[in-house]
C-alpha cells in the first residue's frame, strides 16, 4: 500500500529541513583536516576465475588517514582510460564479494566499490573498521556520535567517500573527467553527499536514497534505520532539537543545493524504509540537471535491475559510450 504522499503530492512537496548556518564551513574544515594525509592508493590483482573482468583488491586512506578497503573491477582488454563509477553500498553492508559487483564493469565501466567503515555485519561482508569513537547510541549507525556533528559516524564515512572519488580519478584505468557517484539506499545518500562535496563528480545516480529529509522521515516511518533515531530520542528526552541539528549536517536535502552534476534519482511509492517524500525533499532542492523515476508499486527495492538498466543507459549516453538499450531515459523530470 502507499506509505506516504501520492505521486501528484510528491511533485508539489517541498522539504522543511533546516540548514545549519555553518554547514559549508563545517564541511570545508572537515575535508581540510584529512586533505594532508596522502591517499596512498593500493591495488593488488586477485584471480577469481573471471574472463571478462579484472579484479583488484583496492584501498586508500580516508578520514584522518585511516585505511579504507574496496574492490576495483576493470573490463578486460581495456585499451584506454574509461569512464568510472564509484559505488557506495546500502546500510549494514560492506564491499561484499567481487562476484556481487559485476554489472557496471560488464557494461564497460571501471568500477570502484567502497567498503563502508564499521559495516558489513548484516549483508555484504565488510573489511574496514570504524576507528572513530562516539558516545551512547541506539543499535546501528544513525545515532552513533549524535551528540555532535564533529563526532558523528557519517562525518567519517562521507569523508571516506569524497576521498574515494579522488582516489578513483587518479587510477590509470580511469578517465578522470568521467567519474560518477552511484548508490542505492544508504549508498544513494552517500553518493549525493559526495556529488555535493567533490567538484570532480561528473554524474550522480541516487536510487531510493537514505539520509534525506531526516526530520520528516523519523515522523512518518517506523522502519529501521530511521527508527533508531526515534528509539534514541525516546530515552533522551528534551534534547531533540540538538540531536536533529547534528543530523542536519548529513542530510541529503542540505547537500542537494550544492550538487550540480547531472543526476538520476528514483523513489518508490510503497517504500517504508526511505519514504518517497524524503527522496523528493532532496530531489526538488537539487541544483543540477535531474531526472526522477517513480516506481509506483515497489518498496525499498525500488526498480531493482530496471533501475540499474536506467542508470547504465543514462551514463553511457552522458559519457559518449556506444549504444544504449531501447528503453533508455533522458533527463527531463517526471518519467
Structure description:
The protein is of the alpha/beta class and 335 residues long. It has one domain: Alpha/Beta hydrolase fold, catalytic domain (Rossmann fold, 3-Layer(aba) Sandwich), CATH 3.40.50. It contains eleven helices and ten strands. A ten-stranded mixed sheet has the order 1-2-3-5-4-6-7-8-9-10, sandwiched between helices. β4 (82-88), α3 and β5 form a beta-alpha-beta unit. α4 (153-169) packs across α5 (186-197). The longest helix has 17 residues, at 153-169. The radius of gyration is 19 Å and the shape is globular.
Kindly provide the name of the CATH class. Alpha Beta
Count of runs of 4 or more consecutive helical residues: 11
Judged by helices, strands and strand pairing, the structural class is alpha/beta
- Structurally, the number of domains stands at 1
Task: Give the SSE string.
Answer: HHEEEEHEHEHEHHHHEHEHE
- Low-pLDDT windows of residues: none
In short:
The protein is an alpha/beta fold and 335 residues long. It contains 11 helices and 10 strands.
Offer a few descriptive terms.
335 residues; Rossmann fold; alpha/beta; 10-stranded mixed β-sheet; 11 helices; globular; 10 strands
